[in-house]
Design a protein that fits this description.
The protein is built from 17 helices and 8 strands. Helix 3 links the parallel strand 1 and strand 2. Helix 6 packs across helix 11 and helix 12 packs across helix 15. The two termini are 28 Å apart.
Length: 427
Protein backbone atom coordinates (compact mmCIF):
# COMPACT_ATOMS: atom_id res chain seq x y z
CA UNK A 1 0.00 0.00 0.00
CA UNK A 2 1.21 3.48 -0.76
CA UNK A 3 1.82 5.56 2.36
CA UNK A 4 0.46 8.78 0.89
CA UNK A 5 1.14 11.49 -1.66
CA UNK A 6 3.13 13.75 0.66
CA UNK A 7 6.84 13.39 1.44
CA UNK A 8 8.64 16.55 2.51
CA UNK A 9 11.84 15.73 0.64
CA UNK A 10 10.08 15.43 -2.75
CA UNK A 11 7.04 17.65 -2.30
CA UNK A 12 8.97 20.91 -2.61
CA UNK A 13 12.19 22.07 -4.23
CA UNK A 14 13.68 22.96 -0.82
CA UNK A 15 13.10 20.92 2.35
CA UNK A 16 13.82 23.60 4.94
CA UNK A 17 11.68 26.11 3.06
CA UNK A 18 8.86 23.55 3.00
CA UNK A 19 9.11 23.08 6.78
CA UNK A 20 8.80 26.83 7.24
CA UNK A 21 5.84 26.85 4.84
CA UNK A 22 4.10 24.16 6.89
CA UNK A 23 4.47 26.29 10.02
CA UNK A 24 3.21 29.34 8.14
CA UNK A 25 0.16 27.42 6.87
CA UNK A 26 -0.91 26.95 10.49
CA UNK A 27 -0.21 30.58 11.40
CA UNK A 28 -2.23 31.79 8.42
CA UNK A 29 -5.48 30.41 9.84
CA UNK A 30 -4.84 30.27 13.59
CA UNK A 31 -6.82 33.43 14.32
CA UNK A 32 -10.02 31.70 13.15
CA UNK A 33 -9.09 28.06 13.67
CA UNK A 34 -8.58 28.42 17.41
CA UNK A 35 -12.22 29.48 17.87
CA UNK A 36 -13.53 26.63 15.71
CA UNK A 37 -11.46 24.09 17.64
CA UNK A 38 -12.86 25.45 20.89
CA UNK A 39 -16.40 25.01 19.59
CA UNK A 40 -15.48 21.51 18.49
CA UNK A 41 -14.40 20.40 21.96
CA UNK A 42 -10.83 21.60 22.55
CA UNK A 43 -10.26 22.38 26.23
CA UNK A 44 -7.44 22.32 28.75
CA UNK A 45 -6.33 19.14 30.50
CA UNK A 46 -7.33 16.69 27.77
CA UNK A 47 -5.35 14.07 25.87
CA UNK A 48 -4.84 15.49 22.37
CA UNK A 49 -3.48 13.80 19.24
CA UNK A 50 -2.49 15.72 16.11
CA UNK A 51 -2.36 13.27 13.21
CA UNK A 52 0.13 14.42 10.60
CA UNK A 53 1.59 16.98 12.99
CA UNK A 54 4.37 18.00 10.60
CA UNK A 55 6.98 20.16 12.37
CA UNK A 56 4.59 20.63 15.31
CA UNK A 57 3.38 24.21 14.88
CA UNK A 58 -0.30 23.51 15.68
CA UNK A 59 0.60 21.72 18.90
CA UNK A 60 2.93 24.58 19.80
CA UNK A 61 0.16 27.15 19.39
CA UNK A 62 -2.44 25.12 21.28
CA UNK A 63 0.02 24.48 24.10
CA UNK A 64 0.51 28.23 24.45
CA UNK A 65 -3.20 28.61 25.28
CA UNK A 66 -3.80 25.34 27.11
CA UNK A 67 -0.67 24.43 29.10
CA UNK A 68 -2.27 21.41 30.79
CA UNK A 69 -3.10 19.64 27.52
CA UNK A 70 -1.19 16.36 27.09
CA UNK A 71 0.00 16.17 23.50
CA UNK A 72 0.96 13.44 21.09
CA UNK A 73 2.06 14.25 17.56
CA UNK A 74 1.74 11.49 14.96
CA UNK A 75 3.85 11.98 11.84
CA UNK A 76 4.86 9.71 8.96
CA UNK A 77 7.85 11.63 7.60
CA UNK A 78 11.06 11.10 9.64
CA UNK A 79 12.38 14.56 8.71
CA UNK A 80 9.26 16.20 10.17
CA UNK A 81 9.35 13.92 13.23
CA UNK A 82 12.81 15.23 14.08
CA UNK A 83 11.75 18.84 13.35
CA UNK A 84 8.82 18.53 15.78
CA UNK A 85 10.97 16.89 18.46
CA UNK A 86 13.50 19.66 18.15
CA UNK A 87 10.79 22.30 18.45
CA UNK A 88 9.26 20.72 21.58
CA UNK A 89 12.69 20.28 23.15
CA UNK A 90 13.47 23.96 22.63
CA UNK A 91 10.13 25.02 24.09
CA UNK A 92 10.52 22.75 27.13
CA UNK A 93 7.32 20.82 26.39
CA UNK A 94 8.16 17.76 28.47
CA UNK A 95 4.61 16.39 28.25
CA UNK A 96 4.59 16.45 24.43
CA UNK A 97 5.81 13.51 22.40
CA UNK A 98 6.11 12.75 18.71
CA UNK A 99 5.55 9.27 17.32
CA UNK A 100 6.36 8.10 13.82
CA UNK A 101 3.40 6.43 12.16
CA UNK A 102 0.40 6.91 9.89
CA UNK A 103 -3.32 7.31 10.44
CA UNK A 104 -3.83 3.75 9.17
CA UNK A 105 -1.06 2.32 11.37
CA UNK A 106 -0.65 4.73 14.29
CA UNK A 107 0.94 2.25 16.73
CA UNK A 108 -0.92 3.93 19.59
CA UNK A 109 -3.27 2.42 22.21
CA UNK A 110 -7.00 2.48 21.49
CA UNK A 111 -9.33 4.68 23.50
CA UNK A 112 -6.53 7.01 24.68
CA UNK A 113 -7.54 10.43 23.32
CA UNK A 114 -10.29 12.97 23.88
CA UNK A 115 -9.53 15.10 20.85
CA UNK A 116 -7.81 14.48 17.51
CA UNK A 117 -7.01 16.89 14.70
CA UNK A 118 -6.08 15.82 11.19
CA UNK A 119 -4.92 18.96 9.42
CA UNK A 120 -4.31 18.96 5.63
CA UNK A 121 -3.53 15.25 5.72
CA UNK A 122 -6.60 13.40 4.42
CA UNK A 123 -6.05 14.67 0.86
CA UNK A 124 -2.78 12.68 0.76
CA UNK A 125 -4.15 9.42 2.21
CA UNK A 126 -4.72 6.47 -0.18
CA UNK A 127 -7.75 5.09 1.74
CA UNK A 128 -9.53 7.90 3.64
CA UNK A 129 -12.20 5.72 5.25
CA UNK A 130 -9.61 3.26 6.55
CA UNK A 131 -7.63 6.15 8.03
CA UNK A 132 -10.70 7.71 9.69
CA UNK A 133 -11.81 4.39 11.16
CA UNK A 134 -8.34 3.84 12.57
CA UNK A 135 -8.33 7.26 14.22
CA UNK A 136 -11.82 6.61 15.57
CA UNK A 137 -10.50 3.64 17.51
CA UNK A 138 -7.98 5.91 19.24
CA UNK A 139 -10.76 8.11 20.65
CA UNK A 140 -12.58 7.59 23.90
CA UNK A 141 -16.40 7.35 23.64
CA UNK A 142 -17.66 10.84 22.87
CA UNK A 143 -14.22 11.97 21.71
CA UNK A 144 -14.02 14.34 18.76
CA UNK A 145 -12.08 14.21 15.48
CA UNK A 146 -11.65 17.47 13.55
CA UNK A 147 -10.63 17.02 9.90
CA UNK A 148 -9.23 20.18 8.30
CA UNK A 149 -8.93 19.85 4.54
CA UNK A 150 -8.40 21.53 1.18
CA UNK A 151 -10.36 21.80 -2.04
CA UNK A 152 -7.96 22.83 -4.79
CA UNK A 153 -10.78 23.82 -7.12
CA UNK A 154 -11.49 26.58 -4.61
CA UNK A 155 -8.05 27.44 -3.30
CA UNK A 156 -6.17 30.75 -2.99
CA UNK A 157 -7.85 33.46 -5.06
CA UNK A 158 -6.86 37.04 -5.75
CA UNK A 159 -8.08 40.34 -7.09
CA UNK A 160 -6.94 41.40 -9.60
CA UNK A 161 -7.00 37.75 -10.71
CA UNK A 162 -3.74 35.87 -11.17
CA UNK A 163 -4.84 33.79 -14.14
CA UNK A 164 -1.90 31.36 -13.92
CA UNK A 165 -3.15 30.08 -10.54
CA UNK A 166 -5.76 28.06 -12.42
CA UNK A 167 -3.06 26.26 -14.42
CA UNK A 168 -1.05 25.76 -11.23
CA UNK A 169 -3.99 24.08 -9.49
CA UNK A 170 -4.68 21.86 -12.50
CA UNK A 171 -1.04 20.74 -12.41
CA UNK A 172 -1.12 20.24 -8.63
CA UNK A 173 -4.30 18.16 -8.78
CA UNK A 174 -2.83 15.96 -11.51
CA UNK A 175 0.36 15.45 -9.50
CA UNK A 176 -1.44 14.53 -6.28
CA UNK A 177 -3.87 12.15 -8.00
CA UNK A 178 -0.97 10.40 -9.71
CA UNK A 179 0.43 9.74 -6.22
CA UNK A 180 -2.90 8.44 -4.90
CA UNK A 181 -4.23 11.56 -3.19
CA UNK A 182 -7.43 13.60 -3.59
CA UNK A 183 -6.70 17.36 -3.58
CA UNK A 184 -10.45 18.16 -3.63
CA UNK A 185 -11.38 15.94 -0.69
CA UNK A 186 -12.85 18.71 1.50
CA UNK A 187 -16.29 18.39 -0.10
CA UNK A 188 -16.34 14.65 0.72
CA UNK A 189 -15.21 14.75 4.34
CA UNK A 190 -18.65 14.95 6.07
CA UNK A 191 -19.85 11.89 4.13
CA UNK A 192 -16.56 10.07 4.75
CA UNK A 193 -16.87 10.66 8.50
CA UNK A 194 -20.33 9.10 8.49
CA UNK A 195 -19.10 6.13 6.48
CA UNK A 196 -16.28 5.66 8.99
CA UNK A 197 -18.78 5.42 11.87
CA UNK A 198 -18.74 8.96 13.28
CA UNK A 199 -21.68 11.10 14.24
CA UNK A 200 -21.28 14.29 12.23
CA UNK A 201 -21.25 17.29 14.56
CA UNK A 202 -20.66 20.10 12.11
CA UNK A 203 -18.95 21.54 9.05
CA UNK A 204 -17.39 25.01 9.00
CA UNK A 205 -15.37 27.12 6.60
CA UNK A 206 -12.49 29.35 7.67
CA UNK A 207 -11.23 32.06 5.36
CA UNK A 208 -8.01 34.06 5.65
CA UNK A 209 -8.06 37.47 3.97
CA UNK A 210 -5.20 39.92 3.49
CA UNK A 211 -7.46 42.85 4.44
CA UNK A 212 -7.39 41.41 7.98
CA UNK A 213 -3.95 39.84 8.36
CA UNK A 214 -1.92 41.54 5.62
CA UNK A 215 0.07 40.07 2.72
CA UNK A 216 3.05 38.61 4.57
CA UNK A 217 1.29 35.54 6.05
CA UNK A 218 0.20 34.56 2.54
CA UNK A 219 3.71 34.99 1.12
CA UNK A 220 5.10 32.75 3.85
CA UNK A 221 2.34 30.14 3.56
CA UNK A 222 2.22 29.79 -0.22
CA UNK A 223 5.87 29.87 -1.29
CA UNK A 224 7.34 28.85 -4.65
CA UNK A 225 8.88 25.48 -3.76
CA UNK A 226 5.82 23.43 -4.76
CA UNK A 227 5.35 25.14 -8.17
CA UNK A 228 9.06 24.69 -8.82
CA UNK A 229 8.78 20.99 -8.05
CA UNK A 230 5.77 20.72 -10.39
CA UNK A 231 7.94 22.23 -13.13
CA UNK A 232 10.76 19.77 -12.42
CA UNK A 233 8.37 16.81 -12.49
CA UNK A 234 6.79 17.88 -15.78
CA UNK A 235 3.31 18.81 -14.54
CA UNK A 236 3.69 22.58 -14.98
CA UNK A 237 5.31 24.46 -17.83
CA UNK A 238 8.30 26.63 -16.98
CA UNK A 239 6.73 29.56 -18.83
CA UNK A 240 3.58 29.36 -16.70
CA UNK A 241 5.65 29.36 -13.51
CA UNK A 242 7.61 32.44 -14.53
CA UNK A 243 4.49 34.25 -15.75
CA UNK A 244 2.68 33.42 -12.50
CA UNK A 245 5.40 35.02 -10.37
CA UNK A 246 5.24 38.19 -12.44
CA UNK A 247 1.43 38.28 -12.31
CA UNK A 248 1.50 37.73 -8.55
CA UNK A 249 3.89 40.65 -8.14
CA UNK A 250 1.70 42.86 -10.33
CA UNK A 251 -1.37 41.88 -8.28
CA UNK A 252 0.38 42.85 -5.05
CA UNK A 253 1.22 46.21 -6.57
CA UNK A 254 -2.45 47.09 -7.07
CA UNK A 255 -3.58 49.45 -4.28
CA UNK A 256 -6.83 47.53 -3.70
CA UNK A 257 -5.52 43.99 -4.16
CA UNK A 258 -7.12 41.09 -2.30
CA UNK A 259 -5.94 37.58 -1.37
CA UNK A 260 -8.28 35.03 0.17
CA UNK A 261 -7.87 31.37 1.00
CA UNK A 262 -10.32 28.90 2.50
CA UNK A 263 -10.11 25.68 4.50
CA UNK A 264 -12.91 23.34 5.52
CA UNK A 265 -13.34 21.83 8.99
CA UNK A 266 -15.61 18.86 9.63
CA UNK A 267 -16.08 17.47 13.15
CA UNK A 268 -17.12 13.92 13.96
CA UNK A 269 -17.83 12.34 17.33
CA UNK A 270 -17.08 8.76 18.21
CA UNK A 271 -20.29 6.89 18.88
CA UNK A 272 -20.47 5.34 22.33
CA UNK A 273 -21.67 1.99 20.96
CA UNK A 274 -18.45 1.68 18.97
CA UNK A 275 -16.30 2.15 22.04
CA UNK A 276 -13.66 -0.47 22.68
CA UNK A 277 -12.66 -1.38 26.22
CA UNK A 278 -9.46 -3.04 25.14
CA UNK A 279 -6.20 -1.46 24.26
CA UNK A 280 -3.60 -2.72 21.85
CA UNK A 281 -1.25 -4.93 23.76
CA UNK A 282 1.56 -4.32 21.34
CA UNK A 283 2.69 -1.52 19.14
CA UNK A 284 2.17 1.29 21.67
CA UNK A 285 4.92 3.70 20.89
CA UNK A 286 6.93 5.10 23.75
CA UNK A 287 8.63 8.45 23.67
CA UNK A 288 12.28 8.09 22.86
CA UNK A 289 15.11 10.30 23.95
CA UNK A 290 16.46 12.16 20.97
CA UNK A 291 19.55 14.27 21.14
CA UNK A 292 18.55 17.74 20.06
CA UNK A 293 20.29 18.95 16.97
CA UNK A 294 20.38 22.44 15.65
CA UNK A 295 20.66 23.86 12.19
CA UNK A 296 22.55 27.03 12.99
CA UNK A 297 23.33 29.15 9.93
CA UNK A 298 26.82 28.72 8.58
CA UNK A 299 29.50 31.16 9.73
CA UNK A 300 29.39 34.34 7.68
CA UNK A 301 31.45 34.06 4.52
CA UNK A 302 32.18 37.31 2.69
CA UNK A 303 32.19 37.53 -1.13
CA UNK A 304 35.46 36.34 -2.60
CA UNK A 305 35.09 37.63 -6.13
CA UNK A 306 33.64 40.56 -8.03
CA UNK A 307 30.71 38.45 -9.22
CA UNK A 308 29.95 37.19 -5.71
CA UNK A 309 29.96 40.80 -4.51
CA UNK A 310 27.47 41.80 -7.21
CA UNK A 311 25.21 38.82 -6.44
CA UNK A 312 25.42 39.65 -2.75
CA UNK A 313 24.19 43.16 -3.47
CA UNK A 314 21.21 41.77 -5.40
CA UNK A 315 20.29 39.45 -2.53
CA UNK A 316 20.64 42.20 0.07
CA UNK A 317 18.43 44.54 -1.96
CA UNK A 318 15.75 41.85 -2.39
CA UNK A 319 15.81 40.72 1.26
CA UNK A 320 16.32 44.22 2.68
CA UNK A 321 19.32 43.16 4.78
CA UNK A 322 22.82 44.55 5.16
CA UNK A 323 24.74 41.39 4.34
CA UNK A 324 24.34 37.72 3.47
CA UNK A 325 26.85 34.92 3.58
CA UNK A 326 27.83 33.59 0.16
CA UNK A 327 27.18 30.09 1.54
CA UNK A 328 23.72 30.89 2.91
CA UNK A 329 20.80 29.20 1.14
CA UNK A 330 18.41 31.78 -0.36
CA UNK A 331 15.32 29.97 0.91
CA UNK A 332 16.76 29.12 4.33
CA UNK A 333 17.46 32.83 4.76
CA UNK A 334 13.77 33.61 4.24
CA UNK A 335 13.65 34.25 0.49
CA UNK A 336 10.09 34.25 -0.85
CA UNK A 337 8.50 34.42 -4.30
CA UNK A 338 8.70 38.21 -4.57
CA UNK A 339 12.36 38.26 -3.54
CA UNK A 340 13.08 35.45 -6.00
CA UNK A 341 11.43 37.37 -8.83
CA UNK A 342 13.39 40.51 -7.95
CA UNK A 343 16.73 38.65 -7.96
CA UNK A 344 15.78 36.93 -11.20
CA UNK A 345 14.91 40.18 -12.98
CA UNK A 346 17.92 42.06 -11.57
CA UNK A 347 20.28 39.33 -12.77
CA UNK A 348 19.20 40.22 -16.29
CA UNK A 349 18.81 43.98 -15.96
CA UNK A 350 21.97 44.73 -13.94
CA UNK A 351 24.31 41.83 -14.70
CA UNK A 352 23.08 40.65 -18.11
CA UNK A 353 22.26 37.04 -17.18
CA UNK A 354 18.94 35.87 -18.64
CA UNK A 355 18.48 32.72 -16.55
CA UNK A 356 15.49 30.42 -16.32
CA UNK A 357 14.11 31.02 -12.85
CA UNK A 358 14.43 27.35 -11.89
CA UNK A 359 18.22 27.72 -12.07
CA UNK A 360 17.95 29.74 -8.84
CA UNK A 361 16.65 26.58 -7.17
CA UNK A 362 19.53 24.52 -8.55
CA UNK A 363 22.09 27.07 -7.34
CA UNK A 364 20.51 28.56 -4.18
CA UNK A 365 23.69 30.09 -2.69
CA UNK A 366 25.73 33.01 -3.96
CA UNK A 367 28.81 30.80 -4.03
CA UNK A 368 27.28 28.05 -6.19
CA UNK A 369 25.44 30.49 -8.46
CA UNK A 370 28.59 32.53 -9.04
CA UNK A 371 30.59 29.39 -9.79
CA UNK A 372 27.98 28.25 -12.31
CA UNK A 373 27.83 31.65 -14.00
CA UNK A 374 31.62 31.98 -14.21
CA UNK A 375 32.05 28.50 -15.69
CA UNK A 376 29.23 29.07 -18.17
CA UNK A 377 30.67 32.40 -19.32
CA UNK A 378 34.13 30.87 -19.80
CA UNK A 379 32.69 28.09 -21.94
CA UNK A 380 30.34 30.37 -23.92
CA UNK A 381 30.71 30.42 -27.74
CA UNK A 382 32.32 33.55 -29.16
CA UNK A 383 30.67 33.89 -32.56
CA UNK A 384 27.40 35.76 -32.90
CA UNK A 385 25.82 32.82 -34.73
CA UNK A 386 26.82 30.40 -32.00
CA UNK A 387 25.63 32.77 -29.31
CA UNK A 388 22.26 33.08 -31.02
CA UNK A 389 21.96 29.29 -31.14
CA UNK A 390 21.93 29.10 -27.34
CA UNK A 391 19.71 32.10 -26.78
CA UNK A 392 16.87 29.91 -25.52
CA UNK A 393 19.05 27.89 -23.14
CA UNK A 394 19.89 28.62 -19.49
CA UNK A 395 21.60 32.01 -20.07
CA UNK A 396 20.29 33.56 -23.27
CA UNK A 397 22.88 34.87 -25.72
CA UNK A 398 25.86 34.41 -23.33
CA UNK A 399 26.97 31.18 -21.64
CA UNK A 400 26.06 27.75 -22.85
CA UNK A 401 23.72 25.74 -20.68
CA UNK A 402 25.15 22.67 -18.93
CA UNK A 403 23.74 19.22 -19.53
CA UNK A 404 20.17 18.98 -18.22
CA UNK A 405 19.68 17.55 -14.74
CA UNK A 406 17.91 14.25 -14.07
CA UNK A 407 14.78 16.17 -13.05
CA UNK A 408 14.85 18.19 -16.26
CA UNK A 409 15.26 15.03 -18.35
CA UNK A 410 12.36 13.41 -16.49
CA UNK A 411 10.22 16.47 -17.10
CA UNK A 412 11.16 16.50 -20.80
CA UNK A 413 10.33 12.80 -21.20
CA UNK A 414 7.01 13.31 -19.36
CA UNK A 415 6.04 16.21 -21.64
CA UNK A 416 7.01 14.24 -24.76
CA UNK A 417 4.92 11.27 -23.59
CA UNK A 418 1.94 13.50 -22.88
CA UNK A 419 2.25 15.13 -26.31
CA UNK A 420 2.35 11.72 -27.99
CA UNK A 421 -0.85 10.69 -26.19
CA UNK A 422 -2.58 13.85 -27.46
CA UNK A 423 -1.82 13.01 -31.12
CA UNK A 424 -4.59 11.24 -33.13
CA UNK A 425 -4.08 7.50 -33.18
CA UNK A 426 -1.66 7.53 -30.25
CA UNK A 427 -1.93 4.66 -27.77
Amino acid sequence: MKDGSYHVSSFSANTQAEIRRLDAQVDLFWRWEKEILLRSGLRDGIDYLDCGCGPGRLLELVKGHFPAVRFTGLEMDPILVEAAKFKFHNRGFSDCRVVQGTAESPNLPEGSYDFITMRLVLEHVPDPVLALKSLGRLLRPGGRLVVISNDFENHTRTWPPVQELEQLYVAYRASRRKDGGDPCIARRVPALLKTAGFTLIGQEVEAAHNAIIGDEPFLKAEGVGIPAQLVSSGFLEQSVFESMIKSWKAMLGHPDHCIVRQLYLATGERRAENASTTALATGAAQPTETKATTAEPAEFQAPGSDLEEKLSQLWCEAMKVNRVSVRGNFFDLGGDSLMLEQVHSQLKEKLGYDLQITFLFQYPTIETLAEYLEKSVKSAPHSAAAAASVADDGIAGEPATPAPSDLELQAQRRREAMNRRKKPGAN
